[in-house]
């Protein structure tokens, strides 16, 4: 599978995917990344890719022309085009699974500044996607998160296939069961005895009974 990133900061993308499991997966040919410097398609000597907003308003918008040219440079390899945007649909595990199942390349357009000329969303992308109801300083972070969530579903990325089956969010509002490692007791906090018993049937039953669920009231702790 291939991931394309249209970005102002290719080094951010490359840095993330040049270490850990991501690097190993790329070296094994499980997936590949391609970063496209948006400024290469600016069409002006100053390499500017943003401009002021029609009708007035604070900040600058990324222009439609360089983004369009960057997409054209990918030809048929652009696959599914995703614009990371606060106004996009919230990304979740089911979307990650569906994107993986397509087997198509994914091309991410990262937003910056005040945003992106609306004609990009209107005419050039297949999906607008958000990580949640908050704003971050650069769309690169969202692009990386989505690509990571999809790439780890690819065959061979994780050593044990079972690792994917028991993960959080495979079922609505249900998280993975609590897990522990050595020591069996620390500071008076003990690992449940059943997990030390070696009785696999009892362990499986305990895990099913103790799966975490998302608590919508956690904000009350703030």
UniProtKB/TrEMBL annotation:
It is an enzyme of class 2 (transferase). S-adenosyl-L-methionine binds at residues 111, 131-136. InterPro entries: Alpha/beta_knot_MTases, tRNA_m1G_MeTrfase_C_sf, tRNA_m1G_MeTrfase_TrmD, tRNA_m1G_MTases_N, tRNA_MeTrfase_TRMD/TRM10. One of its GO terms (cellular component) is cytosol. Residues 1-213 form the tRNA methyltransferase TRMD/TRM10-type domain. One of its GO terms (biological process) is tRNA N1-guanine methylation. Its EC number is 2.1.1.228. Specifically methylates guanosine-37 in various tRNAs. Belongs to the RNA methyltransferase TrmD family. This is tRNA (guanine-N(1)-)-methyltransferase.
């Amino acid at each position: 599978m291939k991931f394309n990133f249209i970005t102002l900061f290719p080094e951010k993308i490359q840095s993330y995917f040049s270490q850990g499991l991501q690097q190993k997966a790329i070296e094994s040919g499980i997936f590949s990344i391609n970063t496209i410097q948006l400024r290469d398609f600016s069409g002006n000597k100053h390499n500017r890719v943003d401009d002021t907003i029609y009708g007035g308003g604070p900040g600058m918008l990324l222009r439609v022309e360089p983004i369009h040219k960057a997409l054209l440079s990918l030809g048929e390899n652009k696959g599914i085009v995703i614009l990371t945007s606060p106004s996009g649909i919230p990304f979740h595990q089911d979307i990650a699974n569906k994107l993986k199942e397509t087997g198509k390349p994914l091309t991410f357009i990262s937003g910056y500044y005040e945003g992106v000329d609306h004609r990009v969303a209107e005419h050039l992308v297949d999906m607008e996607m958000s990580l949640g109801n908050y704003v971050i300083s650069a769309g690169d972070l969202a692009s990386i998160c989505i690509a990571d969530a999809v790439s780890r579903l690819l065959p061979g990325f994780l050593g044990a296939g079972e690792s994917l089956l028991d993960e959080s969010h495979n079922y609505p509002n249900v998280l993975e069961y609590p897990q522990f490692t050595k020591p069996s007791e620390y500071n008076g906090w003990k690992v449940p005895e059943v997990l030390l018993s070696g009785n696999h049937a009892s362990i499986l039953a305990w895990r099913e009974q103790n799966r975490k669920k998302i608590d919508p009231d956690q904000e009350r702790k703030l």
